[in-house]
């Protein structure tokens, strides 16, 4: 098949991708960005002719067999592919020929950013999980257009032969999804585990800046936005307060640097608590299942996806079960037998979610729905 992947302007949000240095660029890669480029690569390995239209930092003709084109060239005249596969953005398919199979990989949780009648230009939507599909498909007219193509990990990017650094804890997700709760509990964790240290890997400066003008006492501001502002204020204050308790915020880091840290660290602590439905898969959580011990919550789709992973997961509302979360974190940091038992289970679980395996399902889905 000839397949064209598309990572559009809404998803990229002015970011340009450095394919000469993709895994070492300090801007890093989100789960959505990573899934797009890795599925493109995986489909090349399955023998297909694959192009990727994406904002490029520099002109690069090819990456791991994937032909690269700047997004600005997407509407240039050419022979149409068998399949268009757009990440998150149905609107970019509006002016593509209906003779091609037109697919959208929907990583987001609504379609409010789309123009009217966007569904008319999509043949198949894919969702990263069954639970996410149940939620997101309600926003389109026909649930039969939907299928699950899971997000995945690449085990080859980790080095699990390195020695774990005892006491090392990682948080590697958006700040709005539960960082405030982990920071709230850190003094308790540190009291029980004096050698514990917390590394936070996510650049949320733009999130902070977007909330600067919000007045939390203004009732005309949507309550969810006010909650975001409260969380941002708490995180900013507490990060400064906890500097002397071995808490470090690294902001943006390269994908390789993050994988190195995850390979070396003991625990991913993710007390996910969202203001609205947000977490449809969590690539970082699946990566931690493979590479380290993990404690999480059952927020949004997570309880369904990770129910057989072997990791301790607290019930929701997350805020009502934080004592349990903290106790699990302490146990993971201090009980090596318990930790290794859960890691063995979660690693085996995560190996069910590799690009090599899931690209076969993607190929079958495309072949089944090809036109002409």
Condensed summary:
The protein is built from 12 helices and 14 strands. With 372 residues, it is α/β, with parallel strands linked by helices. The chain is globular and about 65 Å long.
Keywords:
globular; 35% helix; 14 strands; alpha/beta; 372 residues
Give the structural class. alpha/beta
Distance between the termini: 13 Å
Number of strands: 14
Could you give the order of the helices and strands?
EHHEEEEEEHEEHEHHEHEHEHEHHH
Radius of gyration: 21 Å
What is the subunit organization of this protein? single chain
Task: Give the strand line-up of the largest sheet.
Answer: 3-4-2-1-5-6-7-8
How would you characterize the largest beta sheet? 8 strands, mixed
Average pLDDT taken over every residue: 96
Total helical elements:
12
Unreliable spans are none
Q: What fraction, in percent, of the residue positions are helical?
A: 25-40%
The percentage of residues in β strands lies in 15-25%
The gross shape turns out to be globular
Structure, described:
The protein is of the alpha/beta class and 372 residues long. Helix content is 35%, strand content 16%. It is built from 12 helices and 14 strands. The chain has helices spanning 9-12, 31-45, 130-136, 179-192, 205-210, 223-241, 255-264, 283-291, 302-305, 322-334, 336-350, 355-369; strands spanning 2-7, 49-54, 62-63, 66-70, 83-87, 101-105, 124-127, 146-148, 168-171, 197-200, 247-249, 267-270, 293-297, 313-314. The strands form 2 sheets. An 8-stranded mixed sheet has the order 3-4-2-1-5-6-7-8. A hairpin with a 2-residue loop joins strand 3 and strand 4. Helix 2 (31-45) packs across helix 12, helix 4 packs across helix 10 and helix 8 crosses helix 11. The two termini are 13 Å apart. The mean pLDDT is 96.
């Amino acid at each position: 098949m000839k397949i064209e992947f598309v990572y559009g302007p809404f998803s990229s949000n002015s970011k340009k991708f450095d394919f000469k240095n993709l895994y070492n660029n300090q801007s890093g890669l989100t789960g959505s960005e990573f899934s797009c480029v890795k599925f493109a690569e995986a489909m090349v390995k399955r023998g297909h002719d694959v192009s990727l239209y994406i904002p490029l930092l520099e002109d690069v003709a090819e990456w791991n067999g994937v032909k690269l084109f700047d997004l600005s060239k997407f509407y240039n005249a050419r022979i149409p592919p068998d399949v268009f596969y757009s990440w998150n953005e149905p609107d970019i398919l509006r002016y593509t020929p209906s003779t091609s199979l037109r697919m959208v990989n929907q990583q987001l949780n609504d379609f409010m950013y789309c123009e009217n009648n966007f569904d008319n230009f999509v043949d198949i939507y894919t969702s990263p999980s069954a639970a996410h599909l149940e939620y997101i498909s309600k926003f389109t007219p026909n649930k039969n257009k939907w299928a699950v193509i899971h997000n995945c990990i690449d085990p080859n990017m980790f080095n699990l032969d390195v020695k774990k650094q005892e006491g090392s804890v990682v948080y590697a997700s958006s700040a709005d999804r539960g960082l405030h709760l982990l920071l709230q509990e850190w003094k308790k964790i540190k009291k029980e585990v004096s050698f514990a240290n917390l590394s936070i890997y996510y650049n949320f400066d733009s999130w902070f800046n977007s909330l600067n003008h919000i007045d939390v006492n203004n009732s005309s501001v949507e309550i969810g936005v006010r909650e975001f502002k409260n969380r941002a204020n708490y995180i900013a204050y507490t990060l400064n307060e906890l500097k002397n308790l071995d808490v470090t915020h690294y902001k943006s880091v390269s994908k390789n640097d993050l994988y190195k840290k995850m390979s070396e660290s003991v625990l991913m602590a993710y007390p996910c608590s969202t203001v609205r439905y947000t977490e449809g898969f969590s690539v970082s959580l699946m990566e931690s299942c493979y590479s380290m011990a993990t404690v999480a919550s059952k927020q949004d789709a997570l309880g369904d996806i990770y129910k057989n992973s072997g990791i301790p997961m607290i019930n929701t509302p997350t805020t009502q079960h934080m004592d349990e979360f903290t106790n699990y974190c302490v146990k993971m940091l201090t009980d090596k037998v318990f930790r290794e038992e859960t890691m063995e289970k979660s690693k085996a679980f995560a190996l069910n979610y590799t690009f090599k395996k899931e690209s076969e399902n993607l190929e079958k889905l495309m072949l089944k729905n090809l036109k002409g």
